[in-house]
Amino acid sequence: MPTLTLDALRQRLADRKPGALHLFVGDDVQLITRMVEAVEATVDEADRPFAVDRVRAGEPGGSPIEISSAARNLPMLGDRRIVIVLRAERLLKPKRTGKAAEEGDDEEPAADEGQAVDASALEAYVNDPSPFATLVFVASEIDRGRRLTKRVIEKALVTVFDGNERDDLKVDQRTSLLHVLRGTLAREGRTIEKDAEQLLVRRAAGDVSKLRDDLEKLVLFAGERTKLTEDDVMAVSAEHEAVEDEWAVTNAIGAGDAAAALIETGRRLDRGDSVHALVGQLRWWVSNRLAGNDPSRVRPALEALLRTDLALKSSGGDERVLVERLVVELTGRAIPPQQRWGR
User: Fold this and answer.
1) Does residue 219 lie in a domain region?
2) Burial class (CB in 10 A: 0-12, 13-18, 19+), 190
3) pTM for the whole thing?
4) Of 5, 33, 143, 264, whose CB count within 10 A is highest?
5) How many distinct structural domains can be found in the chain?
């Protein structure tokens, strides 16, 4: 299995030499998202609408034959085509049914619904990839016993995203989270108090994706300040709690409380709420509440909503980060309490 460390991957992408096949596997969602964006950035920005495809395995455009066809299509502009396959565990570790579940090895993959999927076209592509394309499989986990998975790990450059950014060390979970935290803040040009650092790691509870989410919110909340404090962490990071008020996000925005709005947004997303439904609720608040209390903020708010909506529909970034940035943009001066929805 050709492995590629995180540092080596970053260097390849910085040199604009991504290679033909990649497998990103692991549960560090935030870092995977950034590396996917870095792969796409190896194509000139003006060419990306014509040269970059993001598909989800098992959904329209994400069948094995459609993925291989997309990768074999010549780029309309530039000299490279990028195809990103999200949720690739549906192909590389599909649900098993019936006899396949009992026998295991080398069975054809099954779709989430249990129907057999013919992966022969994709296997053929993996064995003989296009010289002008980069195909990236993004999977939370894989089954090394599947025939397609065997071909992918044999031919692709494999990078594991397990929250450990120190490729040269075997470290425990807490130390790994500290490396992520310190590395992220160093790249952002920020420092953090010792107690604040410990609180962030403790509240992450071993979940590197939660840690990265909290760091994104912390940087947004701090604005131009470079020294982050325990009070900052207390303001934006919370233990998992149930959603008690369906309008808590807009109420917090209306109160001018960005920290509370970010916490309530996190609770909604952690519950599994649709980002599109949340954006729709924010659009309603802008049109029906903000417009009547602070009309000067309506136009930039609508522009922020439109920009976020387009980015979400075009897979132009991590959904959680896009919504959190929108929430911060919408938060401004408090509007009169009696006019806030839900009060």
Assistant:
1) yes
2) middle
3) 0.56
4) 264
5) 2
110 and 235 housed in the same domain: no
Please say whether the beta carbons of 254 and 334 come within 8 A. Answer: yes
Question: Does 343 fall in a domain?
Answer: no
Whether residues 43 and 188 fall in one domain: no
Structure tokens at 102: 């009992």
Looking at the fold, whether 113 and 187 belong to one and the same domain comes out as no
- Asked if residue 248 is part of any domain, the answer here is no
Interval 45-72: pLDDT, tens: 888 888 999 998 988 889 999 999 999 9
With respect to residue 120, please indicate whether it lies within any of the assigned structural domains.
yes
- Give the rounded percent of residues in the chain with a pLDDT score beyond 90: 36
Domain span at 189: 171-239
| Residue range 288-305, pLDDT digits in tens | 888 888 899 999 999 999
Domain harbouring 182, CATH code: 1.10.8.60
